[in-house]
Amino acid sequence: MDFSLTDEQQLLLDSFQELLDRECSESYIAELDRTHQPATAFNKALSEAGFSSLGFPEEYGGTPADALTLVLLAEKAAHQGLTNGFGGALLQVRDILMFGSEEQKKTVLALYQAGESPFSLCITEPGAGSDDAGMTTTATRADGKVIINGSKTFITGAQEAKYGLVLTRDLENPHPHRAMSMWLIPMDLPGITIHPLEKFAWNNEEFNEVFFDHVEVDPSTLVGEENNGFLQLMKNFEFERVVIAASVLGQAQAAFEDAARHAATRKQFGQPIGDFQLIQLKLTNMAVKLENIRNLVYKSAWMIDAGQPLKTMASMTKLYATQAGFEIADDALQIFGGIGVTADARISRLWRDMRLNRIGGGTDEMMIHTVGRQIVKDFG
Amino acid sequence: MTITVLCKWCPDTEDLEVGSDGSISFERAKWSISEYDRVALEVATSLATEVGEVVAVVAGTSIIDTSMTRKSVLSRGPDRLVMVVDDRLAEADARQSASALAGAIARIGDVDLVLCGAGSTDLFAQQVGIQVGERLGWPTLNEVASVHLTGSSCRVERRVVDEIDTLEVALPVALAVTADAALPRVPGMREILAAGKKPTVVWSLDDLGPPAAVDRASQVVSTVARSHSTRLQVLFEGSPTEAAAQLVGALRHESLV
What we know:
Order of helices and strands of chain A: HHHHHHEEEEEEEEHHEEHHHH
CATH architecture of the largest domain in chain A: Up-down Bundle
CATH topology of the largest domain in chain A: Butyryl-CoA Dehydrogenase, subunit A, domain 3
CATH class of the largest domain in chain A: Mainly Alpha
Radius of gyration of chain A: 21 Å
CATH superfamily of the largest domain in chain A: Butyryl-CoA Dehydrogenase, subunit A, domain 3
Helix content of chain B: 25-40%
Number of strands of chain A: 10
Strand content of chain A: 15-25%
Strand content of chain B: 25-35%
Oligomer: heterodimer
Structural class of chain B: alpha/beta
CATH class of the largest domain in chain B: Alpha Beta
CATH topology of the largest domain in chain B: Rossmann fold
CATH superfamily of the largest domain in chain B: HUPs
CATH architecture of the largest domain in chain B: 3-Layer(aba) Sandwich
Order of helices and strands of chain B: EEEEEHEHEHEHEEEEHEH
Shape of chain A: globular
Number of helices of chain B: 6
Strand order of the largest sheet of chain A: 1-4-5-8
Number of domains of chain A: 3
Structural class of chain A: alpha+beta
Largest interface: A-B, 23 and 20 residues
Shape of chain B: globular
């Protein structure tokens, strides 16, 4: 088994680190966190350096890249301390690349490659979180138009994005997973209201409630096939889970390194606290968990590149990474002691942000449900 | 027009380890293009969009003869790469490096402009570029903040203490550019993939003729890190008044106040 990177991967990571050092310092990230602002300047720099084109087909001006390379970059951005710094928008754009019309592809890719937020994923509803079938936002046809009514919540980036990728449901269809449709609609249309939600984590991404009150759109805004929206959505969920796990890996590595440095230099009772075995036990367990996360993430990416079905692997990877990653952050915070909860210590932000990974992109419980159900099925 | 850029493949100083006896080890250091030479590559590439090709030149022992070195250099803009690979360049001093690089430039032929960084990341002796120009018998300038080609000559801005001198120099010329002469590009996947397809030639010192291989001008007797006072990294806790009192007490204890 060869764990070494190719020259190209190593050089790309070196380049990416150069860009991060230049455009995404800790003070910049801390300021985004403090002011609840998105990383707009960094996203522009990513775009100018060509990183926004990675993973797209050449016919759309992209540069093809394998899943492992994309995962390594997501890890690297997170290791810098930036939450969801690379890969999130790319995953969304893949939905359009796979199912969108040519015009939709051009619109979305042009925005993404220019470093702008192309669209916001409008899926979750107050009564439909993990259970998409509970969705009640509708799209009805009238006089050659489509009318959208309903509300969404926990919608990331809705204020910033030019478009919304909205999932609606035909309530008269008794099969919910064959009754959902996907629409790419401008977010500045009459009838759309956005209310920001206050939260304590992922401050560089806004969460919002979005209300659709008789919003009239053209039928051409449909993405893919009508009533096929749920299956389209599921198509990229597996990769999304691996990318989230890769981000967790980078953040956990950062938390571990901060804690290890602190343990090696912070003196109490006349010696570095790292000399105490209770601290060493924490650091050792953190290091083991890090390696486990890394192996799961890299193997999942390798399976994608090898064309192997991930089945439950993506869910197992996200479940373990987010839980073990948060344990690493929690132990790191404990090693820091009081100074760790101050705004000056990066670990305070990492701890907050890593907690949300156990919810965003599929809760721990849904990952367990997905994996457990498949295990019973396989052995039944 | 051909522009050559001298690039040093050297260990990252952030990775150096200093032993308790002051000895310096680069054994665990990652190697890359000297940061200052990246600036020279960027200056050359921006000039070459108007006038011609850029040839990067790297010299060193067999440690530099890897696909990683080639792609790393070529992804930063040059059209082709010349490598002088010879184990006689182990721990080469400025005289030996300059002789090898000048020999390579002579063999490339018809070179109008040689650019290099202000110094190297690992040693920053600021000697090689100057000595290359001298060996070629060309006008040679350092501290060059900007370069504009004007036909058979070039106009350069040179920073000297608090002045900026603007000079017109006939080509060919050798220039060492300042660290802020350009912002080096960050190569993307496209540039990295393209780098693997650009041509590279490898020469030994013997391919360059006798003047390229010279003896050391000096012998290194020893290299040790300069001693620095150790930071105690003591954190004083409690209220500001208590912490201030502890700080004053600690300074008194060290006879510093």
